[in-house]
């Protein structure tokens, strides 16, 4: 793993450690001509490369050639005596090549150190700046060290041993899966913070998985969730018991929708297919991090879908399934450990109670409970695309509305995910107050 | 479209009330603060006009009926809804001041969506439109058109009330005289109107004692045995319907009280005179407001004596509801 560097601040003790010799600009201090200031320009000795300071991202940078004619990036700080304290970084890769992920720089023609610092200055070797979320190697290569795993297209695979505790409804007393079960998965996740609205919009698209051997297929076509951290009161409550009193009420409510959620051939019901067409829910976020990246979220809603006890009957058309409506609820916990997005914890639990509307199972209800706890950590990155390790435990309980049998499944997932995109995690501060 | 119409009506009502308020200022009464300011500078309403609103309410209703002498107690959830608009129009000042107070009620009533037992229709009470108009005169008098005209002091405010299209289905149906079975019944108040006399003469909105005398036409629809094959009984009260109503409302509108009793001797299409009676009581207290829209605690009760017919026995029932109501567009 590359070492993480903070770009925003230069180490305060860096300069003395470089062995720099600061030459006082006597001539400048006594008001002599600028020519004498040439003597005041000091090139400090080169220190160990991994201790080199970095140019600061966001501060002005000047591009020029050093006295040897090499292209450099120079960032200076004015000192009280009028001289400059400058960092000088190569403006090309070691061995040649254009630097990537650098900020804009001014490049006046014919600029020299003397013209840049007419009243004297100190020029120290450094490494070019890099944007937030990136670090730069001594050779000049920029590489991403922070990842936003809420924005990615991922593919993965895992070892997913699953055991079924009771209620084998398939008639097959031998589990069709077992210790050697594997899973492949993919999905698109998009999370858009909206600082002006002090809110965040989360999308999941084609988030699906399939198991080897038994080919259980689960997936969501599209899901959207909204959360906010509004500071303006959602409404005001006035009490008229005694003297009228006003209470501002700030809600942490959100909402979400899920479109086409498929559960095909779950372990205990090998012949069934469940398609939830639409689910709507209101959400309450009792805890959210300041950037809404991490949260604890409770959801309550309802859904509508269709259930096929014999999955092959869907070939006869959608009308062959038993329609249902139901109650849905869920609790989601999403915690990012640290600001780098390298480690994240999740806990998701859901409870659903659909009621079959018609057909032989008309009026029947079923309980569905599911919980997944997982950890995902970035192991390394290939060309800034993170490769992560994921381990999780899951449990589910599901009723069969026909036989009233209940099946419980327990399993673990240990696997790897490769994520595309995954930009650096953005820490754009939310506005003090959301837009009205 | 409906919302726009309603908004216009409410706006007009507000304008009228503002004019009335101006008139009262002109009469020497100080304006009352409708808003207070919270610690953070947010203004919030502390006075309300509970007679102008779009009301949505929910409660639990308890009903007691005594058909054939058998009392039975039932509980049912109750939904209430309705639109009420009150306007005040004032003219003149001092002894010449005249205030017209008009209270409209549009599509208002209650419904028990989960009535007890198998019923063809749920219990409900809905009115298409009703209006009560009171004219307050600071110098009420009866003027005799003699020469010169003679004015005789008249100690009442006067007014009238009208109600069109009231339909009721009780929680309990009357019993058949022969079989003792419950007979489905719908009571339709086709039209009623009455002259009102107010001896209290408060001149304030929502405060009156109304003595009414009027006429009404009601139609009872009895299932024979179902409402699809109905038997009709017409009831006509030719200026024999007497009523007494007491309304009271605090200045800030947080508390209101409305009690009413009716005694209605009437002629029926069965060729006999009967006497029906009704009583109602409504107490409201605004306990909360959400964004200045009041949430009201409501105690509502009603009693009815339904006279016997040739095929059904006399019945009476009492309904008491405790609930809350959210008033939208309240001023």
If you had to describe this structure to a student in words, what would you say it looks like?
The complex is a heterodimer of chains A (436) and B (331). With 436 residues, chain A is mainly beta. Chain A folds into 2 domains: 14-144, no CATH class; 152-421, Outer membrane phospholipase (ompla), Chain C (Beta Barrel), CATH 2.40.230. Chain A has 3 helices and 22 strands. In chain A, strand 6 (134-136) and strand 7 (142-144) form a beta hairpin. The longest helix of chain A has 4 residues, at 14-17. Chain A is elongated, with a radius of gyration of 30 Å. The relative contact order of chain A is 0.12. Chain B is mostly beta strands and 331 residues long. Chain B has one domain (2-328). Chain B is 8% helix and 60% strand. Chain B has one helix spanning 2-26, and strands spanning 35-37, 43-45, 53-65, 72-91, 98-111, 124-137, 141-144, 150-153, 157-169, 185-198, 208-223, 230-249, 255-268, 273-290, 293-306, 315-328. In chain B, the strands form 3 sheets. Chain B has a 12-stranded antiparallel barrel. In chain B, strand 1 (35-37) and strand 2 form a beta hairpin. The longest helix of chain B has 25 residues, at 2-26. Residues 1-31 of chain B have low confidence and may be disordered. The chains are: A mainly beta (436), B mainly beta (331). Chain A binds chain B through residues 235-241, 244, 246, 248, and chain B through 36, 38-40, 42, 44-46, 254, 286-292.
């Amino acid at each position: 793993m590359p070492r993480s560097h903070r770009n925003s601040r230069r180490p305060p003790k860096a300069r003395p450690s470089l062995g720099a010799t600061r030459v006082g600009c006597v001539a400048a201090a006594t008001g002599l001509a600028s020519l004498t200031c040439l003597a005041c320009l000091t090139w400090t000795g080169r220190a160990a490369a991994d201790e080199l300071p970095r140019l600061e991202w966001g501060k002005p940078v000047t591009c020029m050639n050093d006295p040897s004619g090499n292209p450099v990036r120079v960032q200076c700080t004015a000192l009280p005596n009028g001289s400059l304290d400058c960092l000088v970084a190569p403006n090309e890769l070691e061995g040649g090549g254009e630097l990537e992920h650098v900020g804009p720089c001014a490049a006046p023609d014919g600029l020299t150190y003397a013209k840049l610092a007419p009243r004297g200055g100190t020029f120290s070797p450094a490494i070019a700046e890099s944007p937030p979320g990136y670090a730069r190697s001594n050779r000049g290569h920029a590489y991403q060290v922070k990842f936003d795993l809420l924005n990615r297209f991922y593919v993965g695979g895992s070892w997913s041993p699953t055991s079924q505790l009771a209620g084998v409804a398939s008639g097959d007393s031998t589990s069709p899966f077992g210790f050697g079960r594997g899973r492949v998965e993919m999905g698109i996740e998009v999370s858009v913070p909206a600082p002006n609205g002090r809110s965040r919009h989360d999308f999941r698209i084609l988030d699906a998985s399939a198991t080897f051997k038994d080919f259980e297929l689960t997936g969501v076509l599209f899901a959207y969730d909204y959360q906010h951290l509004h500071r303006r009161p959602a409404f005001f409550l006035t009490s008229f018991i005694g003297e009228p009193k006003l209470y501002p009420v700030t809600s942490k409510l959100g909402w979400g929708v899920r479109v086409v959620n498929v559960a095909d051939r779950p372990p205990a019901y090998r012949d069934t297919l469940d398609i939830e067409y639409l689910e709507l829910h209101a959400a309450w976020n009792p805890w959210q991090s300041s950037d809404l990246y991490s949260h604890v979220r409770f959801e309550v809603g309802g859904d509508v879908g269709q259930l096929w006890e014999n999955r092959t009957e869907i070939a006869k058309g959608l009308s062959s399934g038993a329609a249902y409506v139901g109650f849905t609820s869920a609790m989601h916990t999403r915690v990012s450990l640290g600001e780098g997005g390298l480690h994240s914890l999740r806990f998701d639990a859901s409870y659903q109670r659909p009621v079959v509307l018609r057909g032989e199972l008309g009026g029947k209800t079923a309980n569905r409970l599911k919980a997944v706890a997982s950890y995902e950590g970035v192991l390394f990155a290939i060309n800034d695309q993170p490769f992560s390790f994921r381990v999780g435990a899951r449990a589910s309980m599901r009723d069969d509305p026909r036989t009233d049998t209940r099946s419980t499944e327990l399993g673990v997932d240990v696997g790897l995910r490769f994520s595309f995109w995954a930009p650096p995690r953005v820490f754009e501060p939310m506005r003090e107050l959301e837009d009205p | 479209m409906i919302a726009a119409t309603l908004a216009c009506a409410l706006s007009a009502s507000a304008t009228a009330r503002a004019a009335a308020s101006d008139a009262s200022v002109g009469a020497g009464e100080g304006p009352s603060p409708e808003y207070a300011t919270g610690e953070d500078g947010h203004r919030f309403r502390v006075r309300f006009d509970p007679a102008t609103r779009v009301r949505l309410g929910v409660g639990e209703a308890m009903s007691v009926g005594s058909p054939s002498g058998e009392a039975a107690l039932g509980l049912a959830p109750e939904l209430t809804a309705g639109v009420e608009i009150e306007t005040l129009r004032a003219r003149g000042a001092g002894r010449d001041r005249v205030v017209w107070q008009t209270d409209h009620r549009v599509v208002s009533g209650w419904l028990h969506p989960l009535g007890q037992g198998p019923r063809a229709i749920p219990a409900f009470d809905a009115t298409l439109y009703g209006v009560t108009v009171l004219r307050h005169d600071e110098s009420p008098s009866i003027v005799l058109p003699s020469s010169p005209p003679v004015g005789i002091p008249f100690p009442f405010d006067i007014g009238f009330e009208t109600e069109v299209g009231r339909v009721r289905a009780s929680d309990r149906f009357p019993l058949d005289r022969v079989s003792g079975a419950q007979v489905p019944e719908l009571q339709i108040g086709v039209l009623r109107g009455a002259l009102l006399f107010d001896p209290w003469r408060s001149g304030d909105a929502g405060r009156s004692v109304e003595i009414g005398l009027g006429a009404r036409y009601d139609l009872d629809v009895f299932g024979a045995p179902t409402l699809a094959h109905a038997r009709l009984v017409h009831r006509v009260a030719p200026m024999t319907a007497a009523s007494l109503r007491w309304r009271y409302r605090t200045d800030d509108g947080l508390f209101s009280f409305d009690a009413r009793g009716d005694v209605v001797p009437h002629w029926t299409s069965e060729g006999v005179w009967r006497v029906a009676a009704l009583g109602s009581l409504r107490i409201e207290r605004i306990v909360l407001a959400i964004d200045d829209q009041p949430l009201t605690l409501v105690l509502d009760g009603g009693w009815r004596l339904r006279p016997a017919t040739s095929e059904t026995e006399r019945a009476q029932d009492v309904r008491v509801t405790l609930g809350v109501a959210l008033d939208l567009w309240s001023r």
